[in-house]
Specification:
Shape: globular
Radius of gyration: 17 Å
Strand content: 25-35%
Oligomer: single chain
CATH topology: Rossmann fold
Strand order of the largest sheet: 3-2-1-4-5-9-8
Number of domains: 1
Bound molecules: S-adenosylmethionine
């Protein structure tokens, strides 16, 4: 019998299990999570206007606390996708849009997103899906847009068993390489920090990266000169 894909395992309940284990239920826990979000500073510094004309999608959004903060602080039009229907219900209960979906098939129109976020999502995705995932990101992003990745980081691929379920694996890679081979994508910020303390560390086992990429499609007028 063939093993189900990791994508299917998360759709079939592992996403809900993650949500049940990690849901921040009290207002104090939620506030603390939002204050400690490693992406918060990078998102604050983006040269994007405030207001609902800026469209944001978080893939693997969990309970949506990052999206909520962006909506409250910047007024951006935010939406999330996650394979967990429990997480999607939680996001909807915050008054935000969310869909049950996975990174390889995003339920959004072409060229509709100004900022796409993967927050600790890609480390759980099937490696055989990474080309599809990058192609979906490219499809939904506008020709001038931003892409933020927060995840475990290693210059060489590492694979570890996922502690909560046998047959599932977590990966460490240089995930920005999914995009930087393409002439339209450039890294504008990349920081490695300790997974728990957020301090500088020389221990590659502990590295977490926050990476911001700019997509800027070349046109004949921008490519000359
Ligand atoms: C570690 S949690 C991160 C949640 C949130 N983004 C955060 O930063 O706290 C990983 C999330 O990715 C979701 N996920 C797992 N596989 C996925 C896939 N193939 N596509 C999209 N999301 C996925 C899980 O259901 C879970 O909510």
């Amino acid at each position: 019998m063939t093993q189900p894909s990791q994508r299917q395992i998360f759709l079939n309940g592992e996403g809900d299990a993650w949500y049940e284990r990690n849901c921040q239920s009290s207002p104090e826990q939620r506030e603390q999570w939002q204050e400690q979000d490693p992406l918060a500073r990078l998102l604050t510094e983006l040269p994007l206007p405030r207001g609902s004309e800026v469209s944001v999608l978080e893939v693997g959004c969990g309970q949506g606390l990052r999206l909520l903060r962006m909506r409250q602080e910047f007024g951006w039009r935010v939406a999330g996708v996650d394979p967990s229907s429990a997480a999607v219900d939680a996001v909807a209960s915050l008054g935000l849009k969310a869909h049950v979906a996975t990174a390889d098939i995003l339920p959004l129109p072409d060229a509709s997103v100004d900022l796409l976020i993967y927050g600790f999502c890609l480390y759980l995705c099937d490696r055989s899906d990474l080309f599809k995932i990058a192609a979906e990101a490219h499809r939904v992003l506008r020709p001038e847009s931003w892409l933020a990745i927060l995840d475990f980081w290693s210059p060489h691929q590492k694979v570890n068993p996922y502690h909560h379920r046998s047959g599932v694996f977590s990966y460490k890679d240089d995930l920005s390489a999914m995009f930087t081979w393409h002439p339209s994508y450039v890294i504008t910020d990349h920081r490695l920090r300790h997974h728990v303390t957020r301090a500088h560390t020389d221990d590659p086992q502990e590295w977490v990266a926050t990476t911001m990429l700019r997509r800027c499609d070349l046109s004949p007028s921008t490519s000359l000169g």
